[in-house]
Specification:
The complex is a heterodimer of chains A (115) and B (116). Chain A contains no helices and eleven strands. In chain A, a hairpin with a 2-residue loop joins strand 5 and strand 6. Chain B starts with a strand and ends with a strand. Chain B is mostly beta strands and 116 residues long. The chains are: A mainly beta (115), B mainly beta (116). The interface between A and B is medium-sized, with 29 and 26 residues.
C-alpha cells in the first residue's frame, strides 16, 4: 500500500530535549516536505527536499533541521525543542514538486507537545 | 506573494443541505495549481482535486463540484446533499510554477459541520 509513515504519532517532551520525527515513503517520490499545522494558520512549510542530499528552507524553518540521505526517508530534527514548537506535524511526498503540479501525499501526522 | 484566503472559518449545515466553501487566491504567476484537501476528525489530509491555471472547466465528482473562475481568482467547492461524513476541515491550496520546490501554500481552512 502506498503510504507516508511518520513516527511517533504522539509525543510529549520537555524543553531542550532533542527529538527526531521520522518520515518514510514507499512511493519512490523525489519530493518530500514537512509542514506544521496550528489553529487558524493552516499548514506552513518547514523544510522541503527536491531529492537526495537536496534540502531547503520553507516558511518557518527556525528551530528545525532535516536530512535526506536516502530517497525514502526525510526525518525532522528538533535540536532543542521549545514550547512554541508544540504543534501537529505532517510529512508529505510527491512525485513532482508543487510548482510542477505535484500532488502531495501526507502522513497521518505527529502531535508534539513541548512542556 | 502567493496567498490563499478562506473567509469562512466555520460552517454548520443540516444533512442534505448544499454547501459551498469559498477559496480566493492571489498569485502573479500565469501558471499555477489549485488544490482542495479534506481533513476529517481523524486528522489525516485527503486529496480531493487538483486544477491547473489553464483549465477553467468546472469539475463534478459525485456530490462534489468545483467552480474555478480566474476572473475572480476563486476556486470554490460545493457539496451537494451534504452528509454527516462530510464533516471535516477543508483546505484550499496553491502552488506556483515559479516557486518550483517551495511552498504549497494552504489557506487557513474551513471547518464544516454537518448535523444529522
Amino acid at each position: 500500500e502506498a503510504q507516508v509513515t511518520q513516527n511517533p504519532r504522539y509525543l510529549i517532551t520537555v524543553t531542550g530535549k532533542k527529538l527526531t520525527v521520522t518520515c518514510s515513503q514507499n512511493m519512490n517520490h523525489e519530493y518530500m516536505s514537512w509542514y506544521r499545522q496550528d489553529p487558524g494558520l493552516g499548514l506552513r512549510q518547514i523544510y522541503y527536499s527536491m531529492n537526495v542530499e537536496v534540502t531547503d528552507k520553507g516558511d518557518v524553518p527556525e528551530g528545525y533541521k532535516v536530512s535526506r540521505k536516502e530517497k525514502r526517508n526525510f526525518p525532522l530534527i528538533l535540536e532543542s525543542p521549545s514550547p512554541n514548537q508544540t504543534s501537529l506535524y505532517f510529512c508529505a511526498s510527491s512525485l513532482l514538486p508543487p510548482g510542477a503540479g505535484g500532488k502531495l501525499f501526507f502522513g497521518e501526522g505527529s502531535r508534539l507537545t513541548v512542556l | 506573494a502567493q496567498k490563499v484566503t478562506q473567509a469562512q472559518t466555520e460552517i454548520s449545515v443540516v444533512e442534505k443541505e448544499d454547501v459551498t466553501l469559498d477559496c480566493v487566491y492571489e498569485t502573479r504567476d500565469t501558471t499555477y495549481y489549485l488544490f482542495w484537501y479534506k481533513q476529517p476528525p481523524s486528522g489525516e489530509l485527503v486529496f480531493l482535486i487538483r486544477r491547473n491555471s489553464f483549465d477553467e472547466q468546472n469539475e463534478i465528482s459525485g456530490r462534489y463540484s468545483w467552480n474555478f473562475q480566474k476572473s475572480t481568482s476563486s476556486f470554490n467547492f460545493t457539496i451537494t446533499a451534504s452528509q454527516v461524513v462530510d464533516s471535516a476541515v477543508y483546505f484550499c491550496a496553491l502552488s506556483e510554477a515559479s516557486n518550483y520546490g517551495q511552498n504549497f501554500v494552504f489557506g487557513p481552512g474551513t471547518r464544516l459541520s454537518v448535523l444529522p
